[in-house]
Write a structure and sequence with these properties.
Blueprint (H helix, E strand, L loop, with lengths): L1 E4 H6 L1 H9 L5 E5 L2 E6 L2 H28 L6 H10 L4
Parallel strand pairs: 1-2
Antiparallel strand pairs: 2-3
Helix pairs in contact: 3-4
Length: 89
């Protein structure tokens, strides 16, 4: 992972953004030689956070569906409604 002082980051912001557009590695921004922030490309952000969050939601829905699938004789639509809105609604 590359490091860059905060002042240089500010001065070269346009060039840094272009490097991320072209697929640059994450960049650590330092102030007084101490790391204070990390900049990543949108593609990395999406892969690390958005896609992971979507997977967790999907896994949660599947777990609820599997739990309810064998526990009652209700219709599929009713089971999906219970998963989506909770069994109290």
């Amino acid at each position: 992972m590359n490091k860059i002082p905060a002042l240089k980051f500010r001065q070269e912001f346009g060039a840094v953004m272009e490097s991320f557009r072209l697929g640059a590695e994450p960049l650590i921004i330092e102030k007084n030689s101490e790391p204070v922030a990390v900049v990543i490309s949108y593609a990395d952000f999406q892969k690390r956070f958005i896609d992971k969050q979507t997977e967790e939601v999907r896994d949660s829905i599947l777990a609820k569906f599997k739990k309810n699938r064998f526990s009652s004789n209700e219709e599929s639509l009713e089971t999906l409604r219970n998963i989506r809105y909770g069994s109290n609604n």
